[in-house]
Design goal:
about 160 residues; mainly beta; six-stranded mixed β-sheet
């Protein structure tokens, strides 16, 4: 059975990261707390080993950030939520050393997809950031999601 991660609040947009690449050891998970230095964040989706049990934090509240390979966030409506997804979570995931942060932003003008890689924990930022407007395919270039394409099937048509 193929599990799909749904990526927006209405649960209509799907991302086919279930086992990417096919047959790999990583899977897409949702409703999972990511724990780093006693702080918890709940991303819209994440890619981590299929079996999360060995990676549970000591308190059993979620999984250790060291097990997470990809974080996927869909920016939520409202300024407070947008700041959280675009700024606060971006910084925290970089501090945690998560290799890839994929941000799908319906509220950034024409809509945009940002792929951030090579986190700098000391600076709470990313060395490599690629941002494209909706309608432009962007391919993940490294990690367990290498080769995954974010395009119109996920973002919808280009906006003008």
């Amino acid at each position: 059975m193929t599990r799909r991660c749904h990526l927006d609040r209405s649960r209509t947009r799907e991302i086919a990261l279930d086992r990417f690449p096919e047959g790999g050891e990583y899977a897409c998970h949702q409703d999972t707390d990511v724990i780093h230095q006693r702080r918890a964040w709940i991303p819209d989706a994440l890619v981590a080993p299929e079996d999360l049990e060995p990676h549970a934090d000591e308190g059993g509240l979620g999984i250790k950030s060291s097990a997470v390979q990809v974080i996927v966030e869909v920016v939520s409506p409202g300024k407070r939520h947008q700041d959280r997804d675009r700024i606060r979570k971006r910084r925290e995931y970089a501090r945690a050393g998560i290799p890839l942060y994929l941000l799908i932003d319906d509220y950034g003008g024409q809509g945009a997809v940002t792929v951030s890689t090579r986190p700098r924990a000391d600076k709470a930022d990313w060395e490599d950031i690629h941002r494209v407007p909706y309608g432009t395919d962007i391919t993940v270039r490294e990690g367990p999601a290498k080769g995954f394409v974010v395009g119109e099937a996920i973002t919808g048509a280009p906006r003008r």
